[in-house]
Amino acid sequence: MAWYLIGAIFLAGIWGLISLPNLIKKVVALNIANSAIILFFIYFGSLSGDTAPIMGDGAGTPVDPLPQALMLTAIVVGVCVVALALGLVYRLYQRYGTLDIREIERKVWRRDE
Amino acid sequence: MSSVALLVVLPFVGALVALFGKLVRAEPLLSVVSTLPLLGMAALLVMQFPAVLDGAAFTYSLGGWPEPAGIALTLDGFGWLSSALVVLISTMVVFASFSSRRYRSTYFFFLMLLVAGMEVVVLTGDIFTMFVGFEIVAISAYVLIAFDRTDEGLLASLKYLLLSSMGILFFLFGVFLLYRDFGTLSLRIMAEDSATTPVAETTSVHLAVAALCVGIGVRTAFMPFHTWLPEAHAYAPHPVSALLSGVLIKISFFAMLRIIAVFRATYLSDLLLWIGAATAFLAVVWALAQRDAKRLLAYHSISQMGYVLAAFGAASALSITAAFSHAMHHALFKSLLFLVAGMAVQMSGERDLYRIRPIGRRAPLLALGFVVGALSIAGIPPFNGFASKQLISSALDHHPAYALLWITAVGTTASFIKASRLVLWRRPAGPALQTTSVMAARRSNHRVPVPEPASAGVMIHIPVIVLALLCLATGLFARPVSLLLASLLSSTEVGAFPAAAAGSAAGTGTAVAAAAGSIPATFLSGPKLLGALPVLVLGILLFLGSTTGPGIRLAGRIERIMPELRTILLYFVLGLALFAIVAYL
User: Fold this and answer.
1) Is residue B567 part of a domain?
2) Residue B55: what pLDDT?
3) H helices then E strands: how many in chain A?
4) How far is CA B403 from CA B8, B277, B301, B399, B406, in A?
5) What are B186's strand-pairing partners?
6) What is the pLDDT of residue B225?
7) Chain A residue set in contact with B, beta carbons under 8 Å
8) Contact, B187 vs B68, CB < 8 A?
9) What distance in Å separates the CA atoms of residue A101 and residue B567, rounded to the nearest whole number?
10) Looking at residues B148-162, what average pLDDT do you find?
11) How far is A24 from chain B (nearest CA, A)?
12) What three-state secondary structure class fits B142?
């Protein structure tokens, strides 16, 4: 069940990325899809054991620590991309006064002249 | 620290130096210092060359952790070739960047970061580190594309960001599936597993490989993922265009090649062959219709990568050698073309081929360099494009898709006759301008960012001359060069792929021996030279046809087809579905 829910989050992100015209919403959708991928890893990792993979009392099976380590990296990378995307969006908004990608594209290519 | 690790660490050090450039007064000096690691990398590569040629593979485990958990960097023949390409073209681009005062330490920070990311991608032994490398590359590329802060540059950068982030999501999903099924991220261990156990034949691994290919495919820019490239490469600062077209798309292509080889994904070969041929053909049609000098070159990058992909997809004995050699040659002549075109655009403040002032008289050496590049890409002997196209035609061996590539060669010739306006022709009366065309509409208030001196500096001449000489040398000595390529690749997993594709259990050595046997003894024999003639004649005819009234109208119509962001993303989904279906079946 959890797999399908994560899949649904991922698809929602992809859908938003494709069909929402607002650039901020597009970036948010990208972030949502990214989180879904992170959830895939984390959930898969969590199935491999039941205690934290830290040297402890030795009771229970520790979870596989690798997915968590990977996803820390992926989160950092994701934050960089989102920050840069928002920076670009802000610049475009300053110049064109709109967040609608269709309008921005029209203006940059001057299709309306 | 081992030399392999240094190859990755050095450019990061360079980037770090550039990062502090703003703090000191000697900022230009610091910019120069920040690029010095490239020299160190070149020296390292030269030192390792004899050993790598003997088939040695240097491995370095990061932090001393062994491979299933740790990160391994491997320098083998494949890594050496890719690194050499990165270092060579980046050095040339650095020289070109010195020719303009616009590029300060911030620029060099991102440039060195880009180099470091590419080294990570080509040297890494595990697939998650490859993802990180791809993102380092991507983030620095986004910044560099938008570096001039022109409207087109910002928009192109954002579009590229959205598309390739979407691609990389699927890449990461593929990594997840592979980790689930193999329990490791190391490419080497996965290659061993997929050779011995049937796990590589499960549907989920097939889908994972398809997802990886799609994620990388966005960076490699074959159809239908090519849509970001013309804008990104055309509106980036000129040296950056050369770097992006010269190296970046090759590095991602090499990464894809490696992944396909590791998983023996022969089921993708036919798809790649046809996508490659279609990409080559369609992109050249668009290239022929362009008026903007740099967009024209950008479309040719797509088209030539189509050649490379088709050669690889043929999965014959020669295909790896042919694909690599064309990718290498394309890196040489395309960065040359982009550097000269960028200089011409900068000197005349105009991007439109029909309005630009040719630089032939003001900078004759640059013009000569452009002509060498144009002859190379058009496949005119004795330049290197001719040699690698010979290899590709042998690799495809009368496959029906080769007809498309042959037509592409005609189109390439025609469009480079048109592009030679950049350097040779006088300011022409030109065909009647289409007021409705996009370029014409934009011409009215077109900006070329910073007015620059109208003469070319000394610095730009160095890379142009070096690259032009390399184009000629790799063309004249095509046989030794391709033999060298074949033997460098022989001991790597990539070199073993053709044998696996042919279904034989033969070792790696035999596959390359077969390739070496099928490399023609001479590239400049009489019949082959005659074979280039019809392409040239038809190319001239096609060019003349494109200057007639109907030709111009058609070109204008094609030029105006520019997909919007939503269409671009839908293309991506389409391509994803295509790969998934082919991998699933």
Assistant:
1) no
2) 75
3) 4, 0
4) 42, 9, 19, 8, 5
5) B126
6) 86
7) 10, 14, 17-19, 21, 23, 26, 30, 33-34, 37, 40-41, 44, 66-67, 70, 73-74, 77, 80-81, 84-85, 88-89, 91-92, 95, 101-102, 104-105, 107-111, 113
8) no
9) 12
10) 89
11) 12
12) helix
Task: Note whether B151 and A108 are within 8 A (CB).
Answer: yes
CATH of residue A9: 1.10.287.3510
Contact B408, B308 (CB under 8 A): no
Structural domains of chain A, count: 1
CA distances from A54 to B65, B203, B422 (A): 18, 35, 65
Does residue B407 register a pLDDT over 90? no
Looking at residue B436, what is its pLDDT? 39
Tally DSSP H helices, then E strands, for chain B.
26, 2
**A5 CA to chain B: closest CA distance, Å?**
15
Residue B161 has pLDDT above 90, yes or no: yes
Q: Which two tokens stand for residue B311?
A: 């050669």
Conformational region of residue B349, where left means phi above 0, alpha means psi within -120 to 50, and beta covers everything else: left
Whether the ipTM is more than 0.90: the answer is yes
Q: What is the pLDDT of residues B559-570, one digit of tens each?
A: 777 778 888 888
* C-alpha span between B188 and B454 (Å, rounded): 53
Instruction: Evaluate whether residue B359 is within a structural domain.
Output: yes
Asked if residue B509 belongs to a domain, the reply is: no
- Per DSSP, the residues of B356-410 read PPP-TTT-HHHHHHHHHHHHHHTT-TTSHHHHHHHHHHHHHTT-TTHHHHHHHHH
Check A84 against B143: CB less than 8 A apart: yes
Q: How many domains does chain B have?
A: 1
pLDDT above 50: residue B34:
yes
Q: Where are the beta strands (DSSP E) in B69-206?
A: 72-75
Domain that holds residue B326: 266-432+454-478+543-547
Enumerate the residues of chain B whose CB falls inside 8 A of the CB of residue A19. 566
Domain holding A88, by residue range, is 2-109
Q: Is residue B38 part of a domain?
A: no
Among B35-49, B284-298, B393-407, B458-472, name the one with the lowest average pLDDT.
B393-407
Q: Tell me the pTM.
A: 0.89
Low-confidence residues of chain A: pLDDT under 70: 56-58, 111-113
